[in-house]
Design a protein that fits this description.
The protein is of the alpha/beta class. It has two domains: 122 residues, Enolase-like, domain 1 (2-Layer Sandwich); 236 residues, TIM Barrel, CATH 3.20.20. It has 14 helices and 14 strands. β7, α9 and β8 form a beta-alpha-beta unit. α6 runs parallel beside α7 and α10 runs parallel beside α12. It starts with 5 loop residues before the first helix and ends with a strand. InterPro entries: Enolase-like_C_sf (IPR036849), Enolase-like_N (IPR029017), Enolase_C-like (IPR029065), Mandelate_racemase_C (IPR013342), Mandelate_racemase_N_dom (IPR013341), OSBS/NAAAR (IPR010197). Keywords: Lyase, Magnesium, Metal-binding.
C-alpha cells in the first residue's frame, strides 16, 4: 500500500532551502526578563518553608457591582499565609490576597477553584525540603500548576511580603519602584441611566478630586452614557471598559465602537473576546481611540504577541495594556509584562479585581514601577466592602502615597487577630 505521506516527505524543503522562513534561534524577548534583569532585589539567604496555609473571609460590598456577568453583592477573599525560617532560626511571615469573583464569568476562576489550587500548591511547597534562594526558586515549587492565576498571585504575594518584612523595607522598594505617590483613577459599573452614571462621576470628580474615570459599557449601553459624561466634563480623562461585550465582526457593534472616537477617550478597554489577540488589531485598526487589552493578556508571551500583531496590522502606539497581577498569575509576571511593553512604547496601567484593602495595597506597590505610566483603578466611591480588614489609603488630588512600613505595610499576625480570619493549614 502506498504511503500517502511519502510524496510530502520527499518534497519537503530542507532547512537550507527555507531561506527567510528559517525559525529564529534567538530566544523570545520575554525570556530575557529575569528577576535580576528587572531590577528586583534578589534573595541570597537560603530560607526553609516552615508553614503554609490560607485564611478566608466573606466580605459584603458597600454597593453591588454590576457587569455583564451579573450583580455581585458579596465576595470571598482568600489570604495565603507563608512562614519561612532562616539558618539562624528567625521566622519570616508574609500574607497575600487571592481576589476571585463570585462566579467564573471573567476568567474561569471563583473561590472554589482558588481553594482547590491552593491545596495543590500547599502540597508542593511542603514536599520539597530544600531551601529556597529567591523568587524564581520559590515559584518553581508550584510551576507545574497550569492556570489558576488568582491562586498563584496570593502565594507569590505572601513570599514578597515575608522577604520585605525581613529586610525592613516596603515591597515596592524590592521591586525597584521609583514613585512614592501613585496616580489613581476609579472604575464605575454599568448604571441604569446616564443620570445615574453622572451622579457617580460627579462624586468622583468634584468630591474626590479624581482626574481619570473608567466606565463600563456594553452594546446599547454605550454612546448615550459616554456622551452625557463628556458633555458634563469636557476635559476629564475618560476611558471605557467593555469586558469583551462586543462582536468584532458585527457591523452594528463596529459602528458603535467607531462612534466612540468622537468623545476623546483615553482608551476602549477589551472590546472583543478575552481569548483574542489578532482580531483586535485587524478589526479596530481604523479607530483613532487606543485599544486596551485586559483579559487577552495572561502572560508576557501574550504581551509580546499582541505588540507584534499591532505592529503588523495596525499601529502599536494605539495599543495599551491593563496589567492586573491577579490575572497574570503574579507580581513577577506583571513586572515582566510592564517592562516588555515599555520597551516598545506601549503604555501600561494597573486595573483592579475588587480586591480588599490588602490586594489594593499590593497593586499600589506594583504601580510604583516606572513602566506603569497611566492612572490605575485604585479608588472607589467609598470602601468597596462594609467590613474590609484593611482601610483603603487616602487619595489626595488624584494621588495615593505609598506605604513606607515593611512589606505591604500591614502586620500579617495582627491582621489575622483583628479580622477573625481562620488559618487553614
Amino acid at each position: 500500500m502506498e504511503d500517502p505521506l511519502a510524496a510530502k516527505r520527499m518534497t519537503a524543503p530542507s532547512h537550507a532551502d527555507q531561506g527567510s522562513r528559517e525559525p529564529s534561534a534567538r530566544a523570545p524577548e520575554e525570556a530575557t526578563l529575569t528577576a535580576a534583569g528587572l531590577g528586583l532585589c534578589a534573595q541570597h539567604e537560603p530560607l526553609m518553608i516552615e508553614a503554609f496555609g490560607f485564611a478566608r473571609r466573606t466580605l459584603r460590598l458597600t454597593h453591588p457591582f454590576i457587569t455583564r456577568g451579573g450583580r455581585t453583592e458579596t465576595l470571598e477573599r482568600i489570604y495565603p499565609l507563608l512562614r519561612l525560617r532562616n539558618a539562624a532560626g528567625a521566622r519570616l511571615t508574609g500574607i497575600g490576597e487571592c481576589p476571585p469573583l463570585a462566579t467564573p464569568w471573567y476568567d474561569g476562576e471563583c473561590a472554589g477553584t482558588v481553594t482547590v489550587a491552593l491545596r495543590h500548591i500547599a502540597r508542593s511547597l511542603r514536599a520539597d525540603p530544600t531551601p529556597i534562594t529567591g523568587v524564581d526558586s520559590f515559584i518553581a515549587r508550584y510551576g507545574w500548576l497550569v492556570g489558576h492565576a488568582m491562586a498563584r498571585v496570593g502565594v507569590e504575594g505572601a513570599y514578597w511580603d515575608a522577604i520585605a518584612r525581613h529586610a525592613g523595607v516596603p515591597v515596592w522598594s524590592l521591586w525597584g519602584g521609583q514613585r512614592e505617590r501613585v496616580a489613581a483613577g476609579i472604575s464605575l459599573g454599568l448604571e441604569p441611566t446616564p443620570t445615574d452614571l453622572l451622579r457617580k462621576v460627579r462624586v468622583a470628580v468634584e468630591e474626590q478630586g479624581l482626574t481619570r474615570v473608567k466606565m463600563k459599557i456594553a452594546p446599547g449601553h454605550d454612546l448615550a452614557f459616554v456622551a452625557a459624561v463628556r458633555r458634563a466634563y469636557p476635559s476629564l480623562q475618560l476611558q471605557v471598559d467593555a469586558n469583551s461585550a462586543y462582536d468584532l465582526f458585527d457591523p452594528h457593534h463596529l459602528r458603535a465602537l467607531a462612534a466612540l472616537d468622537a468623545h476623546d477617550l483615553l482608551m476602549i478597554e477589551q472590546p472583543g473576546p478575552a481569548d483574542d489577540l489578532l482580531d483586535h488589531a485587524r478589526q479596530l485598526a481604523h479607530l483613532r481611540t487606543p485599544i486596551c487589552l485586559d483579559e487577552s493578556i495572561r502572560h508576557a508571551r501574550h504581551a509580546r504577541q499582541a505588540i507584534d500583531c499591532w505592529r503588523r496590522d495596525a499601529d502599536p502606539s494605539r495599543l495599551v495594556l491593563n496589567v492586573k497581577p491577579p490575572r497574570v498569575g503574579g507580581f513577577l509576571e506583571a513586572i515582566r509584562i510592564a517592562q516588555l511593553a515599555s520597551r516598545h512604547g506601549v503604555p501600561v496601567w494597573c486595573g483592579g479585581m475588587l480586591e480588599s484593602g490588602l490586594g489594593k495595597l499590593a497593586n499600589l506597590h506594583f504601580s510604583s514601577r516606572a513602566e506603569v505610566s497611566l492612572p490605575g483603578d485604585h479608588v472607589a466611591l467609598g470602601p468597596y466592602f462594609t467590613d474590609d480588614p484593611i482601610a483603603p489609603l487616602p487619595c489626595h488630588r488624584g494621588e495615593i502615597a505609598l506605604p513606607t512600613d515593611p512589606g505591604w505595610g500591614v502586620d500579617p499576625e495582627v491582621l489575622l487577630r483583628q479580622s477573625a480570619m481562620h488559618w487553614e493549614p
